[in-house]
Amino acid sequence: MNSSKRLPPWHEHFRLSNGHELLIRPIRPEDAEPLRAGFSLLGPDEIRQRFLYAGNELSAEMAARLCAPSPQKEFALVAAESLPPGEALVGAVARAAMEPGSNRAEFTVLISRFLAGQGLGRHLIGRLVKWARRRELDQLYGDLLETNHPALQLTQSMGFRIVPEDSLDGLVRIVLDLSKAAPEEPATVDQPV
Questions:
Q1: For 56-60, 85-89, 115-119, 184-188, which range has the lowest pLDDT when averaged over its residues?
Q2: What is the residue-averaged pLDDT of the chain?
Q3: Residue 136: which region, alpha, beta or left (left: phi > 0; alpha: psi -120 to 50)?
Q4: How many C-beta neighbours within 10 Å does residue 169 have?
Q5: Angle, to 10 degrees, between the axis of helix 149-157 and the axis of helix 120-134?
Q6: The CATH number of the domain covering residues in 12-177
Q7: What residue spans define the domains of the chain?
Q8: DSSP secondary structure, the chain, as one string
Q9: 42, 50, 158, 175: which has the fewest C-beta neighbours closer than 10 Å?
């Protein structure tokens, strides 16, 4: 993970437990087509569990919207091959969006089953938490399927708590109170702290 060249902010190399290296970086408009192509590789259950979305296709409009976050209120990262945006296969997307009229943000993370279970989800959520803390937000929250036990265990191990929400049929809301002391973040060589 040593790099002689300094990376731009929010860019870092991440080595999976299988040895494969990915580049984590802010999402770009050029990622829309690779994101759409990668979405078609996901199974329906995988999409529903990780994205809370019932389709098997990502529309061009939705992909374009996901790849052009508003810098004032949204933040999105991808984990992709170390190729230029538009050419790199995107294996994961992590996104946080500030809720209008509040001091909190909702987050979502989608990781391909080919990359799951190798520490990438924890790392991406950690990056979203760091962004939210820099924005001085009070809370970061997300909704998970109540049957998505790996994601629930992961987020709870990171300090998120389950909050009952009657309106979320089949879903569980997880909340991280950001006003509490920050847990230790793993240092990365390529990412300035």
A1: 184-188
A2: 82
A3: left
A4: 7
A5: 50
A6: 3.40.630.30
A7: 12-177
A8: ---SSPPPTT-EEEE-TTS-EEEEEE--GGGHHHHHHHHTTS-HHHHHHHH----S---HHHHHHHTS--TTTEEEEEEE-SS-TTTSPEEEEEEEEEPTTSSEEEEEEEE-TTTTTSSHHHHHHHHHHHHHHHTT-SEEEEEEETT-HHHHHHHHHTT-EEE--TT-TTEEEEEEETTSPPPPPPP-SSS--
A9: 158
Give the Cα separation of 60 and 71 in Å (integer): 21
Q: How far apart are the C-alpha atoms of 123 and 147, rounded to whole Å?
A: 22
Instruction: Give the type of residue at 43.
Output: G
Q: What is the pLDDT of residues 14-33, one digit of tens each?
A: 999 888 899 999 999 998 88
**What's the token pair of residue 2?**
């040593």
- pTM, to two decimals: 0.82
Cα within 13 Å of Cα(182), Cβ side: 16
Strands of 90-98's sheet in order across: 12-15, 21-26, 74-80, 90-98, 104-111, 139-145, 171-177, 161-163
Q: Model confidence over 132-179: pLDDT tens digits?
A: 999 999 999 999 888 889 999 999 999 999 997 777 778 899 999 998
